Amino acid sequence: MKIKTLGIVSGRRWISRGFSSISSQPLRVCVVGSGPAGFYSAEKLLKSQQVAEVDIIDRLPTPFGLVRSGVAPDHPETKIVVNQFSRVASNERCSFFGNVRVGTSISLSELRQLYHVVLLAYGAESDRVLGVPGEDLDGIRSAREFVWWYNGHPDYSNLDPDLKSIDTAVVLGQGNVALDVARILLRSTTDLAKTDIADHALRSLQESSIRKVYLVGRRGPVQAAFTAKELREILGLKDVYIQIQEADLLKSPADEEELKSSRIQKRVYELLSKAASSSDSHPSPGQRELHFVFLRRPEMFLHSERSDGKVTGVRCEKTILKANGESGKQYAIGTGEFEDLECGLVLKSIGYKSVPVDGLPFDPHKGVVPNIRGRVLGNASTDPAIIEKGLYVVGWLKRGPTGIIATNLYCAEETVASILEDLDKGLLTPTAPTPGREGLVQLLDSKNVRFVSFDGWEKIDAEEKSMGSLKNKPREKITKWEELLKAACQ
Amino acid sequence: MNILKSRLAQVSSSAIIELIRGRFSIVSRRGYSVGVCSRRVQPSRYHPFSTSSGNGSNEEGTQQKETISVTFVDKDGEEKHINVPVGMSMLEAAHENDIELEGACEGSLACSTCHVIVMDIKYYNKLEDPTDEENDMLDLAFGLTES
């Protein structure tokens, strides 16, 4: 099987108009990661530097990062942004190299030798851990793994979570990802069948016996991290009974202060209050249930001798809020009082975490690459800090795993501005010819790495859409590595 | 009520549109970042410009469609005057005229990378109250201001 598509590379002649007075070479940039941060950066670089040549590599055969594997299947409008990214990829100065993994296919230092600029935009592909006993039990997953599973990420197509021998799930965390996974568990599968949800996930959800989902947060409704849009959506789900304890909605003076300073929190709180007061006292027969559980901190995961290593519940400590000095923020402290929630599935939605690659300075505590406005700082704690020449970072790897797609627009603007400044100062002027794309292709060739070009992705895309149209879905995602690679080289 | 005041001023700019029937003007002002456009504008002064009356009898007289005249100001202060059919969104108008404007969801009301600030309270008051869904999107907008 031959997938390598060299056509996109050969035969092109770049007109070098000279990006600086010294060099006549184009500025050669490699963006690692093809999610929103990577594509927005590529777009800005291509626009601002008429002689820049931008290659975007991704470890997957498919582009668009979390727009494909993170955004919920029932949020198709959020994915429209891929049209814009596809236009970027079709720029003749831009190339996509899928199925190329930094760290295994090619090392970071090799990339840095090939390009003037290496811009890391590979996000956060791991999870924060709670660090409480029992976290390794069966039936406990990170929300990320669950999301990647229902979105057809090829690394998680075999996750196969047990949804049919249990009736209750606990979601730990109260952000939008927590709402996404809760909504997918609760939503009618007739609705989901019309989305681009992975087929294996749809089938599993159709057989699901889960009736009840707890959404557990350490702090109160005033501090919940979700946004009003996602909250309104789940509160309005058909045939789902919402339970919110009215007692949890009592506000302290410190809560009132927090609400005053945040429009989002104020609107979220109002939505929760309204839902609490308009909800019936009991679910009606056949209704699924969503319980908002505030002021609870997971203490340990429970299992029984009969459960055979499988989780049977979560022991939570009740908490109260304490003001944190000047910041005005409040944090949760334990009260020593405990309560058990029985469940057969736990999804931890407490945050994503980035993973470093060899040769990359990394702050393991913050889970980001140390940087100044996108310029990567060396590991050594020298003063002033040493800047890694030609190495930049953008997106979640730069600022941590928060924000919406458009946040990356501003994040990319900042990093690209740093690159252009450094270019102006002559810091990126190559001393020797830099091979760029041609060198990358040669190196991948010598290592026998079969990359997928954007044309290859378009073949995958076309096949997915055509399979989807047979089922009245926008697409049927291909979820296996070998099938993706096969579709790319058809 | 929403009059928009930015605390996230470091990002781009904004276009501020006053709406009246068949006529509007766009004002950009530094410090107001509306995703409407990812363009920066000149320092700290209003750029009020506007509008000609738009009753179809403009230079494109052959066209039957009623148009209004709109001025876009980019981040460098450069102005572009275009005629826009009544009813067309600002995002479409910009894209049709090769004006760069970020709009991630392409006008499907699923993000707030582009939105409009109505500066003049008189015109602001002519608008219907924002729907819950619009407000939900605005929660996430850059450069949101109180009203």
Given as residue ranges, the uncertain stretches of chain A (5+ residues, pLDDT < 50) are 1-23
What spatial form of chain A do the alpha-carbon principal axes imply? Answer: globular
Average residue pLDDT of chain A = 92
Q: Kindly, what is the distance between the CA atoms of the first and last residues of chain A, rounded to a whole number of angstroms?
A: 10 Å
Residue runs with pLDDT of under 50 for 5 or more positions of chain B: 1-63
Rg over C-alpha atoms of chain B, rounded to the nearest angstrom: 15 Å
Percent of sequence in beta strands of chain A: 15-25%
Strand order of the largest sheet of chain A: 3-2-1-4-18-17-16
The description of the largest β-sheet of chain B is: 3 strands, antiparallel
Please summarize the sheet with the most strands of chain A.
7 strands, mixed
The largest contact between protein chains, plus residue counts on each side, is: A-B, 21 and 24 residues
Shape of chain B: globular
Order of helices and strands of chain B: EEEEEHHH
Binding site for FAD (chain A): 37, 66, 102, 396, 403-405
Enzyme class (chain A): oxidoreductase
Cofactor (chain A): FAD
Keywords (chain A): Electron transport, FAD, Flavoprotein, Mitochondrion, NADP, Oxidoreductase, Transit peptide, Transport
